[in-house]
Fold:
Amino acid sequence: MRVRTRQGVLATAPPVVLCALLALAGPAIAAGGGDTQAELWAAGCAACHGTHGASVGGFPSLAGRDASELLALMLKQRAGQADSTIMHQHARGFSESELARIAAVFAARPKP
Ligand code: HEC
Structure:
């Protein structure tokens, strides 16, 4: 009987801990927009546009810029209507709605 009670306590503990962690993480997720998939896509841009979109090289910074401006630039690149060396290739890898989600991620970040 004693052992069973202990097992019962152990079995119910993880979900309780998980709920507590989710409750704590909730505001952090909301502050970041909560679009984890788009955050992952945006991470792929860091090699050229800098960590979190704040460029330290010759590439344009993306962080803190207007989302609709970023989207418009990427759609032009995607359509081959922009003066582009490499960016048209990246833009073609995403649908318009995916590019809009990536633009929203960068727009929400602090301007460098
Ligand atoms: C291999 C390097 C590289 C990667 C990776 C890359 N870009 Fe670019 N990006 C560029 C370059 C270079 C330009 C300037 C246009 C050109 O020459 O193609 C540019 C331009 C842009 C512009 C236009 C900025 C402006 O002010 O004109 C946007 C928006 C942009 N990139 C978004 C992104 C996003 C979002 C990603 C990730 C999905 C990404 N880029 C990944 C190299 C890169």
About this structure: Residues 2-31 form the longest helix (30 residues). The chain has one domain: 2-108.
